[in-house]
Specification:
The chain is mostly beta strands. It has 2 domains: 226 residues, no CATH class; 91 residues, Sandwich (Immunoglobulin-like), CATH 2.60.40.420. The protein is 8% helix and 42% strand. It is elongated. The two termini are 14 Å apart.
Length: 358
């Protein structure tokens, strides 16, 4: 994870931007539901593979969960290929000619994967071009959490912030950013303007330290206009943005917002089980919108009450941690989404989590 000093964050575009501002990532088209993903700003684990007659050798027998890039070289005398199979993944390269090399980047969950050459209807595999790769969390080094959205699902729409008097003293500390933030008090993303909707969201996040954090998850939901959205998460954002000091990556157990002077005060003070910043692939009604959606996710102490789902507290840090927030913005330089305010903000009000390792 990346931990910056607890200083106010620059926000000229809105409170939600302060929550999810991210650096640009190279666009990569990927069909919905594809198992593997491109490498993100945090460097993937590097594994080299050598193919020959009739052997397949990996530089690593075991790696940590998350993004991995295989560099595959055919050192043999005939064409070969490279395939990874297991834990719901089955991805392969094109044919690799002798003396040539290629790469394959995937996001791997914990488990054991079969790695082999699929050429000749697996005849090369049967001749010995097969091995296994174990993906596991190093003991004492990696913390991970699995989160499942549950309960009522709501879309949060632009509107006035319900605690302007409470936020005012904190805003005074934001200097030249104060004007931009104050405009969001009247019409921002943290409002009581909500709409009931439906959807699902599950993800696993790994806190590996420094720039090795990773995430793997999918959210599917509808918005008030009936549009169907899908977000595929496979990359965290750990790079700091100029003029926007902030946290980044995956952080487990964070106390911030509100009175803390950490990030925008236009969010009640909360305690989170996990907070993460990511880059996602976003689809609307089955069509790709962007491969560079800027995403902020929190499983946090409950901020909204049952019934009308209005913000119920200025200091919500002692409430039960069960509210799952998903905030999505376009990538830098991209057009606003076709949604109120140009952003997507969806909550699962009674969600749960499970720690996977420590």
């Amino acid at each position: 994870m990346t931990r910056m000093h607890a200083v106010p964050s620059r926000n000229l575009a809105g409170a939600l931007v302060a929550a999810v501002a991210l650096a640009a990532a190279p666009p990569t088209h990927r069909a919905p539901g594809a198992a593997g993903g491109p490498g993100g700003p945090g460097a993937p684990v590097a594994v080299s593979a050598k193919l020959s007659e009739w052997k397949l050798e990996l530089s690593e027998a075991a790696i940590a969960p998350g993004s991995v890039t295989f560099t595959i070289t055919n050192v043999g005398n005939i064409p070969h290929a490279f395939e990874v199979e297991g834990e719901g993944i089955e991805q392969e390269t094109k044919l690799i000619q002798p003396g040539s090399a290629t790469t394959l980047t995937l996001t791997l969950k914990p488990g054991t994967y079969e790695v082999y050459c699929p050429v000749g209807d697996d005849s090369h595999k049967q001749l010995g071009m097969e091995t296994h790769l174990k993906v596991e969390s190093p003991a004492g080094n990696v913390q991970a959490i699995e989160v499942t959205g549950g309960g009522p699902v709501i879309q949060i729409l632009p509107g006035p912030f319900p605690f302007p008097d409470s936020a005012a003293p904190i805003l005074a500390a934001f200097g030249d950013e104060r004007e931009g933030l104050e405009s969001q008090v009247k019409n921002g993303p943290y409002s009581n303007n909500v709409a009931r909707t439906s959807g699902s969201f599950t993800f696993t996040a790994w806190d590996k330290g420094a720039t090795r954090d990773s995430v793997d998850g999918v959210a599917e939901f509808t918005t008030q206009d009936g549009a169907r959205w899908k977000l595929v998460l496979d990359r965290v954002q750990t790079k700091d943005v100029p003029h926007h000091p902030r946290f980044g990556g995956v952080i487990l157990g964070l106390y911030y917002h509100g009175v803390t002077q950490v990030h925008t005060p236009l969010v009640p003070t909360i305690k989170s089980a996990v907070a993460l910043w990511a880059v996602g692939h976003l689809y609307k009604n089955g069509a790709l919108v962007t491969d560079n959606a800027m995403v902020h996710v929190m499983l946090l102490s409950r901020t909204r009450r049952d019934g009308d789902f209005a913000l119920a507290c200025w200091d919500c840090s002692k409430n039960k941690i069960e509210e799952l927030q998903l905030q999505i913005l376009p990538g830098p330089g991209e057009q606003k989404f076709d949604a109120p305010g140009g952003f997507l903000f969806v909550n699962w009000e009674k969600s749960g989590s499970r720690n996977l390792g420590s």
